[in-house]
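hey so u asked for the seq, here:
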Amino acid sequence: ARTEEIAQATPLMQWLSEHVPASPAATIVHNDFKLNNLLLDRADLAHVTGVLDWEMTTIGDPLFDLGVCLGYWIDPDDPEELRHVLPTVTTLPGFLNRRQFMQRYAERSGRDLSGMDFYMTFATFKLAVIIQQIYARWKRGQTQDERFAVFGERVRLLIEYAAARVSI
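ran it, structure tokens below
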């Protein structure tokens, strides 16, 4: 699906392959756990009533699901470009920031989150790959939706953001 070179892509892939942390005990992994795959109780928006989109479910590292969720979790002080690529409600008052979310997860799960830089970097890379696949189809003329015309720049931004997270 490559359409152009992104200087940080190869070093980022190398970093990811060299820094895979030891996984905690395997659990059911949703593989796309994020806010827009949740059903919420109208009377109490903090109460989840259902989780959707289970077709990628597998057994694996539960911290991958946390990383994916946090990959979409934008803080109000994140760079404007990132907030534009990943518009979300998590920047609104009342939402925990990423650090608070991780702290609550660690307290409730008892899991060690010291390797979260890897999981969050990998989640950002995964999202960039998904967007790149859509962009490549658009660039080849396999889809005509003009919204996809800007996806190449979004991929570049996500790769650069992930690389900067781990100082590449």
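The first strand starts at residue 27 and ends at 29. The two ends are 23 Å apart (CA to CA).
lmk if thats what u needed
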